[in-house]
Design goal:
The chain is mostly beta strands. Helix content is 5%, strand content 34%. The termini are far apart. The N terminus is likely disordered.
């Protein structure tokens, strides 16, 4: 039997700095998108490298549905989703979700970003992002 590298418990919520964010669109019609963490340098335990749904674990809420784009800018991870809620999900998230890159915690109010058809960010200057 093969061991799986995906875990939904025992995630160290203080260790976002050494991991890689993995944005998962997920399965449309069943649940909202998720953010996973991958720790490629964890040589101590090769089966303890990926943690599933870390955003939900840290924040107790979800991001929107069919999220396909994320960009780190100014210490924050900006995530764009096509819808605020998947038809099969029990809770709504946000079309635009802003996450602190070091703590994984939500860094803004999702509820006001439930309209629009944005798909990405464009860095306009060193200190500004444009929504496209």
């Amino acid at each position: 039997m093969a061991a799986t590298a995906f875990h939904s418990v025992a995630f160290d919520e203080n260790d976002f700095a050494s991991g890689v964010f993995v944005l998962n669109e997920d399965w449309y019609g069943h649940q909202n998108s998720t953010i996973n963490m991958w720790y490629p340098d964890n040589d101590d335990d090769p089966y303890n490298q990926v943690y599933y749904r870390v955003f939900q674990s840290v924040n107790g809420m979800e991001i929107g549905a069919t999220a396909q784009y994320g960009q780190i800018f100014g210490g924050k991870l900006y995530i764009m989703a096509k819808q605020h809620k998947d038809p099969g999900a029990t809770t709504a998230g946000g079309r635009l979700t802003v996450v602190d890159e070091m703590s994984g915690s939500i860094a803004g109010d999702q509820s006001r970003w439930r309209c629009g058809r944005w798909r990405r960010f464009i860095q306009r200057r060193c200190e500004r992002l444009g929504i496209g």
